[in-house]
Every structure is written in structure tokens, then in C-alpha cells.
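Ops channel
N.P.: pipeline sanity check, posting one input/output pair.
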């Protein structure tokens, strides 16, 4: 920008208008600001004390935003009011009036989006922006955490021991919205549901959620279905096919509501993720025999839209999960072929398949994707693999359809299971 090009003409206009003002109305000798100020007409004030009355000054408050473009032409501290509430953006702590404070709003000037910044990385237990790997030992009941930084394990340590194997970890999610992923437990004998609010390796708070005694009710997905930055719980009844939503607020259920019954149990819930980019997780279904894939676009407890995505007839193809592979803010769908070992991805956009491509082929079917989350915090989810026989671990740091960097991680005893 050329300072003189922009300001020299303004300066000139200012000088000429000041001169005119002096000559035509009162003359320099009669300048008496207080007389005009007391008239209450801001045209004859000189707000920025640049010796030009406001009526001749094209920038009354001297904030270098022209009056014609300044929502507050007489206030040097403000010039923009995005939500038109009369409070300038500098003083306003919610510029777009979407109910998400600017400090937590990834899109502070867009009322249609918030993308709560504390909820960008799933499975991040210590809030450092990198997802972590949670383990439970199916033999001795130890619960264990690897805090990750890409392919490196920053710290490997135990959380606690819950020896009773009726207690199962049925979901990971951030229930209180503090940016740290928490743990949902369900007791398969008693039906008791229990929550750990986590802070790294420490349980900062724990307690009973409720009892759901009928063990046919299963937690299928934990994700933020209403976009409030707190993960919610989606249930399905394993016999009747009913679905049920809990919208969560910390240790308590904010809204508990039955959703549609999908009586045909060949329809399976295979993933959740935000496939249309509205910051609300959606539900991905796959029909075991027809191969139809089906989407529920969720808005809290309401299904905003539902439709067949496509058909992938071969039942060799299984959906490993969903996650944002290319960092565009929309979750993508990741497949594994359980016959030939091909790994495949759909890039999603607006709830539809934008592009579809092979990632690679891992022929040995003992290797399965155990976790899909952003281990290096670059905005693209990564793949954590586990070998069912040898118990080896392997990590792909993903970059779109490509594997950016990959390698073996630490091998642990097969009694250790990765928890999701
Ligand atoms: Ca949390
Ligand atoms: Ca929520
Ligand atoms: Ca969505
Ligand atoms: Ca990543």
C-alpha cells in the first residue's frame, strides 16, 4: 500500500474543507469549539481534534476507517459490528451473536458456523491437540494411556485398574467440552453406565450416569450430534432395532430421546462423523446384505435429512470409520476390504462423495485399523493399526489419500485392546 496515494488526497480535501469552513462560516479567529459542541449537533464537533469539523471530516474519529465504512464513525475504538447489536466487535465478546463466545469460536464472524475450538481433536485425553491411544487389558483390567505426538509415544502410563471385565469401555468422547476426551463405561451385567471425566492420566471427576438394565441396548457411537462442543451418545437396541439419543452435558444427560426404529438388523451403524460440514456429527449406516450405505444428517436428536449415499454390494468391503482425512472440516469415510486388503477412502462434501480413491493395499488381514484420530494434530486423521496375531502396532500419518509417514509403534501383549 502506498501511504501517500491514499492519504495525500484525503489530507488535501481536509485542508480545503477546513479552509472553506473557516472562510464561509466563522473564520479561524472565531473558532470556538465549545459553542458548537453545546449545540448537540455532531456535525459541528471535531471528535478527533484534527481541527476539521466532523461535517467536513471524512474520518470523524480518526481511526483510519472512512466514515462511510465505519459502523461507529464517532468512536475511535470501534468500526465493525458484525451482528448489528450496537456493540462493536472489539467490545463484543460474541461478534456474530451465535451464542459461542469469540474465544471459543473458530468462526467468530460467521453465525452459521462455530467449530468450537476445544473440540477439534477427538480422542485427545490431555488437551495438547494430539489424539491419544487408550488401552484396556482384557486379562488383568489395567487401563492405560499413550499420549502421542505423531508416531512418538510421549508418555505411556496406567490410569487405574478395573479388574471386573463386565465393565467395558463403550465410548470415548469429550462430554464436558473441556477439550479433553473422556471415557464412557457400561457394565454388561448390571446395566450401570459410568463416566470418567479425564485430564490426561488423571480422572478429574467420575460418577454414575444412569442404569440401562436391558443389555440389548448398546452404545453405538459417541460424537457431538448437536454441535455444542460436548459429545453425545447414540444407542441402538440389538433386538428391536430402536435407536436413542442422549445429548450430554458433562456427567448428566441434557436430553434423552427415542429416535427412529430400524427393525431390519441387517442395517448396521458403522460410523459417525460430520459428513456435511455443519459441525454436527452424522450417522453412517451400512446394510449387510444389500450393500446400501445410508446417511442420517443429524441436528441434535432430529434427523435433518436421510438418504442412500450409494451401494457397495460386496460384503468384503467394511467401513473402518470416519474422520477428516484432508483437513477440510468434513469427515471422510474409510474402508477396508476384508478379502483383498485394499484400503479405500471417500472424501465427503455436503453429505455426498466428492471423490473416491484407493489408499493402499495391506493384504495380511490380521492387520486391522484400530483407531482413526489425529495423532500429530495437523487436522488430518491418522490410522493406528493393530496386528491380531502378533499384536504389533503400526501408524500411518495421513495426508489426504496419501500416507505421509508410517512405521511400527511399540508391540504390546495381545491382552491389550485399543479402546474407542
Ligand atoms: Ca472432557
Ligand atoms: Ca453435544
Ligand atoms: Ca453434520
Ligand atoms: Ca494427522
Amino acid at each position: 500500500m502506498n501511504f501517500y496515494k491514499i492519504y495525500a488526497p484525503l489530507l488535501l480535501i481536509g485542508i480545503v474543507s477546513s479552509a472553506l469552513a473557516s472562510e464561509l462560516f466563522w473564520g479561524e479567529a472565531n473558532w470556538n469549539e465549545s459553542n458548537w459542541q453545546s449545540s448537540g449537533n455532531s456535525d459541528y464537533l471535531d471528535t478527533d481534534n484534527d481541527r476539521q469539523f466532523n461535517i467536513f471530516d471524512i474520518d470523524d474519529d480518526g481511526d483510519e476507517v472512512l466514515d462511510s465504512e465505519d459502523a461507529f464513525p464517532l468512536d475511535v475504538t470501534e468500526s465493525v459490528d458484525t451482528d448489528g447489536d450496537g456493540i462493536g466487535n472489539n467490545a463484543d465478546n460474541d461478534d456474530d451473536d451465535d451464542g459461542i463466545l469469540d474465544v471459543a469460536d473458530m468462526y467468530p464472524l460467521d453465525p452459521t458456523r462455530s467449530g468450537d475450538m476445544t473440540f477439534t481433536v477427538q480422542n485427545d485425553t490431555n488437551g495438547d491437540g494430539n489424539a491419544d491411544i487408550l488401552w484396556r487389558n482384557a486379562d488383568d483390567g489395567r487401563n492405560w494411556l499413550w499420549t502421542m505426538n505423531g508416531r512418538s509415544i510421549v508418555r505411556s502410563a496406567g490410569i487405574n485398574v478395573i479388574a471386573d471385565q463386565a465393565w467395558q469401555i463403550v465410548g470415548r468422547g469429550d462430554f464436558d467440552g473441556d477439550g479433553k476426551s473422556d471415557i464412557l463405561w457400561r457394565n454388561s451385567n448390571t446395566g450401570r453406565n459410568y463416566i470418567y471425566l479425564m485430564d490426561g492420566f488423571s480422572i478429574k471427576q467420575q460418577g454414575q450416569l444412569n442404569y440401562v438394565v436391558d443389555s440389548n441396548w448398546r452404545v453405538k457411537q459417541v460424537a457431538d450430534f448437536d454441535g455444542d462442543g460436548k459429545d453425545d451418545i447414540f444407542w441402538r437396541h440389538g433386538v428391536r432395532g430402536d435407536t436413542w439419543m442422549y445429548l450430554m452435558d458433562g456427567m448428566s444427560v441434557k436430553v434423552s430421546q427415542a429416535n427412529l426404529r430400524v427393525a431390519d438388523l441387517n442395517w448396521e451403524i458403522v460410523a459417525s462423523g460430520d459428513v456435511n460440514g455443519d459441525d454436527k456429527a452424522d450417522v453412517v449406516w451400512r446394510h449387510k446384505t444389500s450393500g446400501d450405505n445410508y446417511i442420517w444428517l443429524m441436528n441434535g436428536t432430529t434427523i435433518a435429512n436421510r438418504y442412500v449415499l450409494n451401494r457397495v454390494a460386496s460384503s468384503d468391503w467394511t467401513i473402518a470409520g470416519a474422520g477428516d482425512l484432508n483437513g477440510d472440516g468434513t469427515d471422510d469415510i474409510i474402508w477396508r476390504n476384508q478379502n483383498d486388503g485394499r484400503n479405500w477412502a471417500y472424501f465427503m462434501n455436503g453429505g455426498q462423495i466428492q471423490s473416491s480413491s484407493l489408499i493402499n493395499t495391506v493384504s495380511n488381514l490380521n492387520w486391522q485399523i484400530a483407531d482413526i484420530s489425529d495423532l500429530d494434530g495437523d487436522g488430518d486423521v491418522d490410522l493406528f493399526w493393530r496386528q491380531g496375531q502378533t499384536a504389533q502396532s503400526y501408524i500411518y500419518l495421513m495426508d489426504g489419500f496419501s500416507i505421509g509417514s508410517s512405521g511400527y509403534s511399540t508391540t504390546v501383549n495381545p491382552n491389550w485392546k485399543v479402546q474407542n
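N.P.: looks fine end to end. The pocket of calcium ion (ligand 4) is lined by residues 374-376, 378, 380, 382, 397 (CB under 6 Å).
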